[in-house]
## 1
Amino acid sequence: MYLISLGAGILAGLLYGVINVRSPAPPAIALIGLLGMLIGEQVVPVAKRLIEGEPLTVSWFASECKPKITGVEAKAPQQTAAADCEPGSRQG
């Protein structure tokens, strides 16, 4: 894993050299690069889903990809008040 990380860092350094960006990159460029990395990580699950012939839906993207990109967990479905009143449900 360390060698892969080193290789990725060298590749990023080469890219910085080609586009003439100093290292460390200015904050805006660095943050956009990190966002690109997070988005790029989601190419694999999307490709797997397409290969398996499953549809890409907004709900799937929101539950599987969005939390990994934003760092915010997907919200669990909320229980409605009507469900609390069903027979057999315990209140207390």
## 2
Amino acid sequence: MASIAVPAVAQTQAPTITVIGPSLKDSEARLRACIARGCPPAEEIDAVLGHAEGQFVAGDYRGARETVRRGVSRNRKFAKTAPEPVADLLRADARIAGHLGFADKARQSMMASEGVLRGAFGETDARSIAGRIATADAWLSQRRFDAAMEGYRAAERLAGRAGNARLEGLALLRRASLDAQLSSARSGDGRPDSLRRLLERREPELAVFVNAARIVDARIQVAQGKTDAMEAIIAAARQDVGNEPLLLHMPVIVLDETGDRVVDKLAKRGAPPLTSAQTPLLKVATEGNWADFGFWVGPDGRVREAEMLRSGPKLSGEWPKLVVASLGGRRYAPTTAPADEPGFYRVERFTMTAPFTQETRSRIRVRSAERKLVRLDLTAPSQATASAN
């Protein structure tokens, strides 16, 4: 949603983080001027998103959502004449709502975005299918597994009908990954039919998804004690220097009553529970409780120097330590760059939140006891390669 520029520096130096784009004052002035002169919907939506991005990066989530929501109110009527900008606006609303803990609103806005695209271009259009996958992702984030699975199946079916191999592969990969997780959770062998099917595909345009399926399969083998399986896949996944780093493995951050912790099955280790992280929810800020983390991805695919760069005004709890530990255990595809080059520098925003829920026999919305970490990549794609030039 938003971008961070990172200049090329030696790996031993702390990089300077620069937010790309105009100041909030300038972006607000641009938006006001656009509205005042009645600029076209696409131009206004661009100004809305530009200002909302700046507010979001600055930590003003409520302000960013209000900017977007007002933009939706003014421009929703243009869904037929400017469908893609309107869909982008609704998608932005979904992302911001997720960081605020409005899980239902996030899903509803994502579904509305998909509906705009489907109504304008038809259900077999690539944009509509991608929107359907994004909606299924929203269902998955709320642990509504059946709804997510149905969304992935529908997207796979529509992409196949349209002859869009890439979107068919993406939907099948999402399905296979979810199938694998559910199979493991239910003490099965962990290798579902959807995963087998994807591993057997040989079309060149599906190669990236087949490779990702091999990672899913390797995770299953690691869970069964075959730790060498992941190392073999990582070694075979080498990328060219100019490509964005491909994430292959990420230790899981678990937040529950048994003790917040990082679970890294690849390394056969888990960070010990942080007892101070088991703070009751009401004592942990659920707004303004965010932080940006920076880290290097070396040519070997390992993460170095993960650290918290800045934080929101209400940062509380020990969760940033878990994020740093999880980042440190990530594995990316190695690149062909020389070993002495710094590699990539990445910046990601993590927000600690809790979904809103409605009390029984009441219309009052309250925070649930379920804490949730929401992640967003802030790295500008064109600036991610710190070793360039």
## 3
Amino acid sequence: MGGAQGGSGREPAAPPPGGADFEIRVRGRFGESFRSAFGELRVVPRPAETLLVGTGLDQAALYGILDRVQALGLELLEVRRLPGPEGA
């Protein structure tokens, strides 16, 4: 049979040693109390959702943020690793 095994054949990129930049989308808009729970992130309100943007996050920090999202009862829509600078 052919050599295709599903997927792109590429291994997922490992986060850089110093961490990576992430965008986390949650449903709804935050009030000040929710914003203070995510003080280490840039909070970007959108009409029907809020973006949480973090820079230089390692895996432990990302999981901690996701735990807070869940503990606060927020609906997680998407977690996306942002592209790093060219040549990094």
## 4
Amino acid sequence: MGSDTRVRSSRVSSAAGVLAACLTVRRVLESRQVRRSLRAVPSEAPAASGTGAPGGARVVCVVPMYEETALAEATVRFWREVLRAKDVDAVVLVTTAKETAPGGATTHTLLRELLAPGGAAHENLVLLHCEEVCPYRAAQLDMAVGWARERFGPDGDERLWIGVYNADSRPHPDTFGELRTAIGAGPQVRVFQQLVDYVVPEREGTGAVAAGNAVLQTWWTLSHYVARNERGLDGGSLWARTSPFSTFGHGEFVRADFLQRIGGFPRYAYADGLLLGWVARLAGEPIGLLVNRDVAEVPRTGRDLVVQQTAWLRGLLNFGVTVDWCRRQGLVRLPDNDVRVLRARHLAIPVTWGLSTAVVTAGIVAEVRRVIRGRSSAAGLAAMAALAAYPAVPALAATTRQQSAMGRGRRVAGVLASWPVEGLAFWPALYGHLRHGQQAPAKTPR
């Protein structure tokens, strides 16, 4: 019996060592990619033709607003400055009839009051109210696209670009100049996604997990997303063509003629940002990358993080639904084998995301038990140290100004608090997906 126990313990230790080695290599490769991505961010704004230039692109930014009273004033203030700089042609704020506020002001009421003093000086900052009650925000987005077509219709859909942002989005001022330069350099690209810096909200009630989530989300964007996007644009091999990436739902730009082709923003499932990019990939459309950042907030508390991560993971499980929808619409342009591989690789993302926390924790616990029983080796202790360090590595180097200001100790503590929470969110997402339950909460928290 004792011999069998020692054999099993040795096997567990060996497995933990292999896992630690694989995860260490992963972090090394991620670190190299993060450094590359940080160097790629331009220090100066690219040359751009500006708004209304003859033959130039018309850029209309759309911000769907639902229960955003806390951010309404700051959102209006930010986009007014963007319009004053003539970086975009118009900004459309779209509220929804889904929002009710018994005894209080709705987002629409507050925005209407905020915009009234601007008058004609801000005629390109438009407020619309969507009466169509849809489970998802696609109805709001499509309403704004209709307005943009009426306003800039004579220029044609080939010149009209729709940018999508959230109420908390604060894109870098050079974003729109970079977009116009990219449009001119690659006229065949009809969808762009910009990189994102995730930041901790500077509002009351923000907990430690917010700092960690900001670190991890920005790290993922600079490492995995950039690498997958660049590999996918190459498209020379099966591995490149099936690189699993999409759009985010904020900091994305899509040309109006592509939206016309697919029937508007996707509304057949949750997470239109992911769905839009997946439809583009299946239709053979490249997704260009903009390196100037959209600055977006992360959830403030652990509870809010679980709700948001569960919603995101539930969205990631909708790739198969997207394939079926695209086939019915006659949009699929990829070979069947590519679609199968792409489906498998997209499914692997939420599954490995959910399992990683459990597997790494199990490896650490197994080695701790060996230490307690006096059976641990130097190699086992090294494996345990590597596994314990794995979640914290992204916190060692700051990737944004806010991260630099918060200090390494706060970043590490935040990551150690946030990382297990993110992993736990997979299981309620999987449960809801298998039971065909509610796709997502009515609103993901900020």
